[in-house]
Amino acid sequence: MSAKGLLSIVLHAHVPFVRHCEKEWAPEEDWFFAAVTETCVPLIALTERLARENMRAAFTVSLSPTLCAMLEDELLAKRCRGYAENRLAFIDEELARHAEDSPEHKTALDYAALYETALEIMDRYSGDLITPFKQLQQNGLLEIITSPATHGLLPLLVHPEAVRAQVAAAAEDYADRFSRRTRGMWLSECAFEPRLTQQLQLAGIKYFFLENHAFSLANPKPRCGVYAPARLKGGVFAWAREAGAAARLGPGGYAADPVYRDFSRDAGFDADYETVRPYLHPDGARRGLGVKYHRNTGAVPAAGKQLYDPEAAAARAREHAADFLKSQLALTEQIYAEQGIRPVITCACDAQLFGRRWFEGPQFLENLVRAIRQERLPIQTATASECLEAGQANCGDDIEPEASSWGEGGYFEPWVTTASDWIYPRVNAAAEKMIELANRFQFQDMSSVEKRVLTQAAREVLLAQSSDWADMMRQGEHAEYARGRVLGHCENFFRLARMAADKRTDETVLRELEARNNVFLNLNFRAFASASTF
Amino acid sequence: MESETTLLQVKECFDSSPLWAESLVSQQNRLVLIARSPRSVLAYWEWTGPKADVFRKGAFAPEVVFVLLRADTGAEVFQEKRRWDDLRFYFTPPAGGTYYRAALLVSSAAGQPHSKLESNPVYVPRGAAQPPDGGCAS
């Protein structure tokens, strides 16, 4: 069936660098383990399942460099295994506690399958989850792209060199890991301002994604709106999220259906303390254990939520896939009639919505691909690179998209609040010093130790720039952790900067920081230099 | 371990003093603009220890003048008096879709112009009639 339109499903997966090798356990590492077991593994599994039946997911998956670093880290692989085994042990107890014909038992079996699959895939790839993504890309089943090195919010970085370092470090990290250059970049929080275009072009980025008002306020407006790539000066392309698809796939869309599993209630909080105690962290604090027995239900307090029915939820995921395809086909027909083009509909989402927040999200995605094939629908999923090839003839004149983000309000306010604005003097001062050091040492012969000092200094600056810290401060829940991270990385940076400037290295400190913050193994500190080339 | 100590010190530092006051003493005198939206820009500035001392000793006027300029023409857009140790404030630019820069004018106690800090250029987005929703899925 030839397609009248293309669906570009883009899933952005990111977790800040939360590896804490200096501790026996750290609750923040659970964010990574949850992303692995509830989003990454289900995505790998569904893509493999479809491929076994000769179907191609053709999704574009953005894996942030910090997530990638953690996905192939041996310590975290071991800890993630422990996390999944702990959950399975708890689920076993839950299965024994609930009668076989009870709704809870049926639901617990689903969770057992989830963590068993996670262990099976982790074991199959010896704990290195970059390998399956790399293979799926090599087999043409997914396209993998990157995002700024530590998810720095680029429009808030005042030094062009700092922007360039975020982009270049990510591009180089991707090339090391995936044995090819990235074509696309997911800008952190879809945050864009016009001066970024040149930086992206310099790093060899072919395309990136924006929120839809970046196009509606662009100068000039793109000829085909959000339904074709827009070419920017310098030959870089941008895609904008299609608002209707974004709303359907966003947290308030299908995911909020009353039949779907509720995210907030969890047996880790609901069950007797003595029951859950063996499965908690050593501090004994209650936490989610991933066994959630309730459904969204509707606008009721948590206590009024009804029990989850996996079969009803699976049926709803099939209905929603059908509804989504129907709406996208109607849109395709409409755009074709109005503009005479074969539209590309960009459905760009936070990957962690699928699986983690919207438990049935991976089923929805799988149903989508199956329905297209089985019902021979005149629409197909295609990777962003394929969509670019198909759609670039419809670009029209070069545009300049408007500065924007996908955050609340559409710009950058969520990351600069009175709770977080103190970050910027520190982070910008560190970047300025790093630029000065890179300029000073870039052409100098250095010992390997001196190079390591500058490289680790560059890592610490990048880690301090992560947009996650400001976001956590705004939301409040993990604000203290986020504050510690910003202050800690800046402190580490200035200590290393002093060592570099004085040419007096404390190797004990250096080794410890390298072991602790071990991202971007092949980072070149010269990425921060004012006239760096890459 | 060394780094454990560092983290502990950092935490104590955070608990005992406001984070903005800590940036009062910097390695450089600096004025920075950061655009948050078409309606809001953050301006912050930092002083070196010796410069801050001069303010404290009264050799400089305690009021500094913040001047916003269009980056393309250099035309002055507005100016506002602030205290030298305000260190930050948020302002609404007159229009989006353009680049701005700013200067902070320092005078001697006698009112004679003394020095000027200049900011980075900042792009302020063009605003929509209705603030966009933002589609953040997280």
Name given to the CATH homologous superfamily of chain B: Immunoglobulins
Shape of chain B: elongated
Instruction: Give the N-to-C terminal Cα separation of chain B.
Output: 36 Å
Q: Roughly what fraction of the amino acids of chain A lie in strands?
A: 5-15%
Counted beta strands of chain B:
9
Q: Which CATH architecture of chain B is right?
A: Sandwich
SSE run of chain A: EHEHHHHEHEHEHEEHHHHEHEHHHHHH
Helical region count of chain B?
3
Q: Helix count of chain A?
A: 19
Instruction: State the CATH topology of the largest domain in chain A.
Output: 7-stranded beta/alpha barrel
- In the CATH hierarchy, the architecture of the largest domain in chain A is Alpha-Beta Barrel
The count of DSSP E runs of length 2 or more, i.e. the number of strands of chain A, is: 9
SSE topology string of chain B: HHEEEHEEEEEE
Distance between the termini of chain A: 43 Å
Gyration radius over CA of chain A: 23 Å
The stretches of 5 or more residues of chain B where confidence is low (pLDDT under 50) are: 1-17, 134-138
Our estimate of the beta-strand percent of chain B is 35-45%
SS-based structural class of chain A?
Answer: alpha/beta
Counting helices, strands and paired strands, the structural category of chain B is: alpha+beta
Shape of chain A: globular
